[in-house]
Amino acid sequence: MLVTGGAGFLGANFVRYWSGQHADDHLVVLDALTYAGDRTRLADLETRGAMEFVVGDICDEVLVRDLLVQHRIDTIVHFAAESHVDRSIVDGGRFVRTNVLGTQALLDAARSVWQERGTWRSGVRFHHVSTDEVYGPLAEGASSFNERSPYNPSSPYSASKAASDHLVRAAGVTHGLPYSISHCANNYGPFQHAEKLIPFMLRQALHGLPLTIYGDGLQRREWLAVHDHCVALDAILGADVAGETFCIGGGTELTNLELVHRLCGMLDARFAANPALADRFPLCPAALGASSRTLIIHVTDRLGHDRRYALDSSKLSVLTGATPGVVFDEALERVVAAVLSDMA
């Protein structure tokens, strides 16, 4: 298996999960180690030979082709992507290069190695990891997006992901590529980059810095534990579903403001139960007996900010049996504990 972007948040969690569940599989990770990639997330696996790490760019078709041949790869799980909406607003070209051109380079490499005289090698699969954001905003009270929902991207990020989805499907229709695609809700869990909402708000609060909420904070998101995401991908890859698309939701839908309030409550409770935290984080309001919620401020809304996302995962459940198994508050508490530990 070749995992692109395997040193990123989603990719590293998937590699660790897959290595634990399929210990006999040979894993190769390809990652360019940009700001979002961290090789240390996989250091223990690499040390004991459970996987091989290659530093490289998915746009390098020759490199990818060589890896497919050298390691006899039969499965590509494609996570590698620029994924931060704010960054895409500033530099959309970078997102087009990685998310669109990079995906096409992977597809071309796969076809050159896996297809011979129009016949595809038996058992190969190209799985493309996409996002709920390609569907654009979901109206309040509307039914969740499903696999038949029309695309309506709002940002350079979601537009580039939509384009990459279309390229994968086109490779299936035009060339017969055995592919599958998944659209996931907002993920949370270990290794998430500090600029993402949950780790960002926790670190801001611990340093006594403003918890900046875009607009009114009533944008609604569905949250998916990264472990449940990995379980779903395992189920998809193990099923005879080439040519299918799946939505992967987490079942917990909150406004951004509700989520930040919940995080603040968890921090406040930990400070109340453990006075030593006040010595470590004296600038956090909870260190003085106040609530971390006092740090919340509202700022001008972001450009192209969708109001709501939610996914209907019934197709995934029916065809693969995968359903969310992580309890949201329990997993969120573990994230809080991990951030506190990381900042020790």
* CATH homology superfamily name of the domain at 2-192 and 223-251 and 310-325: NAD(P)-binding Rossmann-like Domain
What radius of gyration results from the CA coordinates?
A: 20 Å
- Low-confidence spans: pLDDT under 50, at least 5 residues? none
Helix content: 40-55%
Principal-axis shape? globular
Which fold name is given in CATH as the topology of the domain at 2-192 and 223-251 and 310-325? Rossmann fold
> Largest sheet, described in full?
7 strands, parallel
Topology readout:
Layout: E1 2-4, H1 9-21, E2 27-31, H2 43-47, E3 51-55, H3 61-70, E4 75-78, H4 85-90, H5 92-114, E5 115-116, E6 119-120, E7 125-131, H6 156-175, E8 179-184, E9 186-188, H7 197-206, E10 211-214, E11 220-225, H8 226-237, E12 244-248, E13 252-255, H9 256-273, H10 276-280, E14 296-299, H11 314-320, H12 328-342
Parallel strand pairs: 1-2, 1-4, 2-3, 4-7, 7-8, 8-12, 9-11, 10-14
Antiparallel strand pairs: 5-6, 11-13
Helix pairs in contact: 1-8, 3-5, 5-6, 7-9
Short summary of the structure?
The protein is α/β, with parallel strands linked by helices and about 350 residues long. Helix content is about 40%, strand content about 15%.
